[in-house]
Write a structure and sequence with these properties.
7-stranded mixed sheet, Metallo-B-lactamas, alpha+beta, 7 helices, Metallo-beta-lactamase, Chain A, hydrolase activity, RibonucZ/Hydroxyglut_hydro
Length: 451
């Protein structure tokens, strides 16, 4: 038993401690011995607690913490901290400690909270790249592909972007945080957007300009899940629309996706998944971008693009009505990335896409549950908060009766579940909740600030 500078090891793993409390030596089939301060366990024995200090486990088991600190050991498993500190080590990654914080990271999992203050280091292939750190106020950290958790309360927050002094709008639902990127803005005729609803009614719900146009954002929703960077929708794109198209569709701003992603330390190449509710031009133009040969290349070359099978078929074979919104410039370059589904698909075991039809024959919605909370993106079945009434459907809808029935079903279910409604187009609200009487009870407003 060493008095100070203790050291102990298990096969394939090594920890080090300078607290002067213990010393632990192990062989493949024997895990040490005990004195009056603690106990060690033999490889075939069950885990056991010492005198309130710590627990050890054999090489293929996960340990548990004692009252002062803990050492955890299992290959490819997440290590956690005790109330004072822990040291973690894995091949290819290093962990260090001080008396009040921990540094930790595992390839496929995010670190969890220490004693309220921690730093977060990530070893990328080719070298060490510190990707974020935290202090008592922020307690946030991030890297290009994975997210940590907050200390001092344990709330989840993957990223904290800084965009030239403008705070990016976001919504935290359980352990997921949704961010709205800058995808551009359009202005479409209010009459077309509200169909048969008279202007004296809809104009009390949503602002319009002197041309009778309403502002419609095209802002992709970004979040991280299990180390994957995910987008819902792709924005209006950049450099793809002619002057005539910009005028007809009221496009006053094109996408600034690169700038938005750079706030997280990401690029387009870091996007792993794109969820497309449908492929109308105002949702799909951002999927491709012009190259130097007057052609188009994928905007997110490493991403799997999910869309319903029905929508993908019509995108490539539009009819006399839909050919004005399904453009080959938006699908030819990305066809090798597309993954289709018939009625429903679950992404990363958490996010559901459900085929609804209505707005288009292949239209789908997106929803998820996290930490006992829910959110739903009804896309163009519910393009803005002003379309809450199931009967208020757009003249753009190919199958308006389907839209009505699907709206009624999913809005009622989401309200019953106290879910957040999140929007791609709404120029007033990013997200909101309604009660059963149709009253808005929570909201995330869009900040109309100069960039």
């Amino acid at each position: 038993m060493a008095v100070r500078g203790a050291f102990f090891c298990i096969v394939h793993q090594t920890w080090k401690n300078g607290n002067g409390i213990f010393n632990f030596f192990a062989t493949r089939n024997r895990l040490g011995k005990q004195d009056r301060y603690f106990r060690f366990l033999q490889s075939e024995a069950g885990r056991e607690n010492g005198s309130g200090i710590f627990l050890f486990c054999k090489s293929e088991q996960l340990g548990k913490k004692g009252s002062a600190f803990s050492i955890f050991a299992k290959r490819n498993r997440l290590r956690k901290t005790g109330p004072v500190f822990s040291i973690f080590c894995k091949e290819g990654q290093a962990g260090e400690n001080a008396t009040a914080f921990s540094v930790f990271y595992i390839t496929e999992q995010a670190g969890e909270k220490g004693n309220g203050i921690f730093n977060f280091l990530h070893y990328r292939i080719g070298g060490e790249t510190p990707q974020g750190k935290a202090d008592r106020q922020d307690r946030l950290f991030y890297n290009a592909t994975q997210a940590g958790k907050m200390g001092n309360g344990g709330e989840y927050n993957e990223l904290k972007p800084i965009t030239g002094g403008r705070r990016m709008e976001h919504l935290t639902v359980g352990e997921m945080t949704l961010y709205w990127l800058d995808g551009g803005v359009t202005h479409l005729d209010g009459g077309a957007m509200f169909g048969v609803v008279p202007k004296p009614l809809w104009s009390r719900k949503y602002p319009y300009n002197e041309k009778n146009q309403i502002e419609l954002r095209t802002d992709p929703i970004f979040f991280q899940l299990y180390g994957k960077n995910i987008l819902i929708e792709s924005g209006i794109g950049n450099g793809k629309l002619t002057d005539k198209q910009k005028r007809n569709y009221g496009v006053t701003e094109e996408s600034q996706i690169d700038r938005s992603l750079s706030a997280f330390g990401l690029t387009r190449e870091d996007i792993d998944i794109v969820l497309m509710t449908h492929l109308h031009f105002d949702h799909a133009c951002g999927l491709t971008m012009p190259d130097d040969t007057n052609g188009y290349v994928p905007s997110f070359p490493n991403a799997a693009i999910y869309v319903s099978e029905t929508e993908w078929d019509e995108m490539r074979h539009p009819n006399i009505r839909s050919k004005s919104t399904y453009w080959k410039e938006n699908w030819e370059a990305i066809q090798h990335q597309v993954q289709t589904f018939k009625e429903e698909v679950t992404i990363e075991g958490k996010v559901r896409m459900v085929h609804t039809g209505g707005h288009s024959d292949g239209h789908a919605i997106v929803m998820a549950e996290s930490g006992g909370e829910k959110w739903i993106h009804m896309a163009d079945l519910l393009p803005t908060h002003a379309h809450r009434n199931p009967l208020w459907v757009m003249a753009y809808d190919d199958y308006p009766m389907t839209s009505i029935f699907q709206k009624q079903k999913w809005i009622e279910e989401a309200i019953r579940d106290n879910a957040w409604f999140v929007f791609y187009h709404d120029a007033v609200y990013r997200a909101l909740k309604w009660d059963t009487d149709g009253n808005m009870i929570e909201k995330v407003e869009r900040e109309k600030m100069p960039v």
